[in-house]
Amino acid sequence: MAREVLHRTVEPDGSRFADHYREENRIMLRPTKQLVSFSTRRSFLRSGLAAPAVIGASMAANSISTAAFAEEDDDGPTVGDISILRFLAALEILETDLWEQYNELGGLRDQEEPSGSGNKPYSDLLAQIDGDMSQYIHDNTEDEFTHFNFINEYLKSKRATPVNLERFRTLQGSIAQGSSGKKRLTNLMNLTVDASWWGRYRSRDANPDLGDTTFANPVPGLLKGKFPAIPRTNDDTTDPKHLLAIVNTAAFHFGTIEQGGSSLYPALAQRVSSVEVLRILLSIGPTETMHFQVWHDKVGNITKVTDPFNGLTFPDMATFQGNEDLQANLIMPEPTHFLSRSLPVCSIIRPTATRGAAAAAVRALTDDGLFIGQPVEFFTELHELAAHADAAQRRQ
Question: What angle, 0 to 180 degrees and rounded to 10, lies between the N-to-C axes of helices 240-269 and 275-298?
Answer without folding.
Answer: 160
